[in-house]
Structure formats: structure tokens, C-alpha cells
Amino acid sequence: MRDTYMHRIFGFFLLFLCPVMSSANHDNLQIAESILDAFYTFDQNKLTQFLVPSADADRVLYYQAWAQAANYKIKNRNLCVHNASKAIVCAVTVTDDFGQTMGYVATDTFTMTIQENKVSAISFVGDDPPIFQQLFAWIAKNKPQVLSGPCKDLFNGGKTPGDCARAVVAAAKEFMAL
């Protein structure tokens, strides 16, 4: 009898809790979409408002400046979704100066955790093809001044993401002309 009573209380509790949890999940998805809006319109001030100061935030702001300098344009943007571990995943296919020079499009996938309307953790990966890694190997061998100059500390505290992106695009044009 006591178990049945506890099950009813638990069920009643879940009945009221689920809509609240669902609403919070929906709100977080909306925040993630707003973050992408700020990222791809290159509105650094708006993007910064969503980020808890951290190394993750610094990398995203660096990447945004890199993306702006490389003329990222959205080709396809899927809605953000929750993954199995409840993080939010957003995939955006873009065209950019690298892809136009080297003949490909790439998808950026952002994974983020949002707490209290702020991003507490964020990471991103691209699906650039092997030729992009080959380009960086070529740059390291043939244009090391790019990596020691504008691309010093690339995505790791670097201070000149725009100059770096433009230098890599220029190197990609040389690389593709070989």
C-alpha cells in the first residue's frame, strides 16, 4: 500500500515537473539558436553576452573573428538539438574562402551546455577534408612565417584571428596553384 502511495506521489510530481523541464530545454535551444545568429552575423558584442568568461569563450570569439575574415556564409543550418548527454548540438554548413579556393564546403558542429541562460561550456569541430590539413602541413614547411606571425597561438590564445585567416587563404591560393 505504501509503495502505491509513493508511486502516486512520484507520478504526480513528474506530471508537474516534466513541463518545466521541457520548457527549460526549449528555452536553452532558443538560446543556442540566438548564439548561432550572433556568431554568423559576426555580432561579437551580442555573442559575448551569451558566454561565461572562459577559455571556451575565448576560442569561440577567436573563431568568430576567423570566420568573419574568411567570409563564412551559411549554406545550410539545421535546428539545434539535445544529444544523449543533454548537451546542445548545432550543425551549420558554410561556404568560405578556404572552401571556395580548395573546392569544398564544410560543416561546423557546435556542442554547448547552457546554464542560467549563459553558455557554460562550448566546443566546435569542422569536417574540413584532408586537403585542409595538407594545406597546414604545406604552410608549416613552405611558409612558417604564417604560423609564427599572424597564426601564432592559432585557436589557443592568438590575438590576430582575422589576419591569420586571410594569411591562410592567401597560402591556400598558392598551394592550389602548385
Can you walk through the features of this model?
The chain has 178 residues and is of the alpha+beta class. The protein is built from seven helices and five strands; from the N terminus they run αααβββαββααα. Helix 1 packs antiparallel against helix 2, helix 3 packs across helix 7 and helix 5 packs across helix 7. It is globular, with a radius of gyration of 21 Å. The N terminus is likely disordered.
Kindly summarize this structure in a few lines.
The chain has 178 residues and is of the alpha+beta class.
Form type:
globular
* Straight-line distance between termini: 81 Å
CATH architecture: Roll
Largest sheet composition: 5 strands, antiparallel
* Alpha plus pi helix count: 7
Overall tally of domains: 1
Give structural attributes.
5-stranded antiparallel β-sheet; alpha+beta; Nuclear Transport Factor 2, Chain: A; 5 strands; disordered N terminus; globular; 7 helices; 178 residues
